[in-house]
Design brief:
Elements: E1 4-7, E2 11-13, E3 18-24, E4 33-39, E5 46-52, E6 58-60, E7 68-73, E8 78-83, E9 92-99, E10 114-115, E11 119-124
Parallel strand pairs: 2-11
Antiparallel strand pairs: 1-3, 3-8, 4-5, 4-9, 5-6, 7-8, 9-10, 9-11
């Protein structure tokens, strides 16, 4: 069963924008945190942004601050990642992750129990 389903436009030219969506299944409704990670070929998976469900506090990697915005629509139980001013180095597989029992540091994989299948983002120069 797919617990987290990511979607979004897969490719864009440098300087353009994309919006990714993450729709959790009812099984993980009530999650306390939801985040986006990414992994480029040959590189480690890194935390991009996280939002705390109650209150909407956000965290961002330094590399995306000012360009990316994470948000949530509680009515739809959906989390979004708006990506502006995209750069070729943003090219990666993007994964949505959720946690119902917060623990650890926001940008570490071990802090999340539920993961999506990932969606490919390609930014061309």
């Amino acid at each position: 069963r797919v617990l987290l389903a990511e979607s979004g436009v897969g490719s864009v030219q440098a300087g353009g924008s994309l919006r990714l969506s993450c729709a959790p299944s009812a099984y993980i409704y009530g999650h306390k945190c939801m985040g986006w990670f990414r992994q480029a070929p040959g590189k480690e998976r890194e935390g991009v942004a996280t939002i705390v469900s109650d209150g909407g506090k956000t965290f961002y990697a330094d590399s995306v601050k000012g360009r990316f915005t994470i948000s949530q629509d509680n009515a739809k139980n959906t989390v979004y990642l708006q990506m502006n001013s995209l750069k070729p180095e943003d090219t990666a597989m993007y994964y949505c992750a959720a946690e119902k029992s917060p623990r650890g540091i926001w940008n570490t994989e071990g802090a999340y129990s539920y993961w999506g299948q990932g969606t490919q983002v390609i930014v061309s120069s």
